[in-house]
Specification:
The structure is a homodimer. Chain A is α+β, with helices and mostly antiparallel strands. Chain A is built from 8 helices and 4 strands.
């Protein structure tokens, strides 16, 4: 199989960090999103939504959507579990992964795509007012996340999971989206520092 | 366990249709969203995001997020499978469930919440221009979905799945969002007619 990768873009990074955490090696096909290669005829055939990453299996079957790709690998290589263990923990990972994605990742992505000058050709029509009202939404979610992290090390509970990967990537995405980290969120700060020290994250930065 | 239910709102309906398809009976606690009961102190403690549905287990553990609740039941009652069988099919269901949610359900929800007069107190600030640009996004996705349905009965493949539930609910949600079904999407029409005839959907309408 091979993974069409978008480099530093947030969704491709979620998959490559997931693979690094699991210790899974996959053939990577770099796609230059700056040159809009993901909108080429070849890749549009593979994913009509023109987004990355795209996983192509050896028989030509295509899988897209970050979390669907991660779940596929999770079924093939269950250890270490990054989607939880047992019915309740698996549901809690899913709950937090979705809370983070819908209430944090998405507002940050809207702020970036609708206010950043470099996105003007990408997000049509760009609507800066929509980007603006998403900034405080992301910050409000961080306050809720801070409360949740008061009594546990990771977002979904006792174990590191895919919800932590989504949130870690999103905190980094706040910078180009020009969203400030609210002050005083000591539990979020402690969590972020601890995740940043993980080997997969340090290797990515190097 | 008990399920705090929001009646006809789209996310609560996704869970109740899922339960009906599975034949699972759960104690329901009706919550009057018209009276904003989901924002009461009691329910805000259970879900600080102030959304429904909320599943409360017998030991007080809370699960929120539509798909996390469905996944929890899927683990407890695997038959009939609504999240696929085997690594590849499960990933394909997840892929389509997410495609439908992010590129269809979400644009329709934005159109409804940002343009409908009744939503003015709910979506603050309401931004009608944002609602407007989401209408064609939903229609574009239906064209892509029509292509996908050309060679199979259900959205993720040969079997009915949670992706069909999300899409079925979203088609119904187009009406209050004032989004017209594009003409000529014969595969979508055939799929929608077939899903509408399922016992769970007919029982809901009755």
């Amino acid at each position: 199989m091979k993974l069409y990768d978008g480099g530093r873009a947030p969704n491709p990074r979620r998959v490559t960090l997931y693979l690094a955490e699991k210790g899974i090696a996959v053939e990577m096909v770099p796609v230059d999103m700056g040159q809009k290669e993901h909108k080429s005829d070849l890749l549009s055939t593979k994913n009509p939504l023109q987004r990355l990453p795209i996983l192509e299996l050896d028989d030509g079957t295509i899988l897209t959507e970050t979390i669907a790709i991660c779940r596929y690998f999770e079924e093939l290589y269950p250890e270490p579990p990054l989607f939880g263990t047992g019915a309740l923990e698996r549901a809690q990972v899913e709950m937090w992964q979705r809370r983070v994605e819908l209430n944090f990742f998405l507002p940050v992505a809207f702020a970036f795509r609708h206010t950043h000058p470099a996105m003007k050709d990408w997000e049509v029509p760009q609507m800066p007012e929509w980007g603006e009202i998403n900034r405080p939404k992301a910050q409000e979610f961080l306050v809720l996340l801070n409360d949740a992290l008061a009594d546990r090390p990771y977002i979904a509970g006792a174990h590191f999971s895919v919800a932590d990967i989504t949130a870690y990537i999103t905190v980094g995405f706040m910078k180009p989206a020009k969203i400030a980290m609210p002050e005083g969120l000591t539990h979020v700060q402690r969590w972020y520092a601890s995740v940043s020290e993980r080997p997969a994250m340090k290797a990515e930065k190097a």
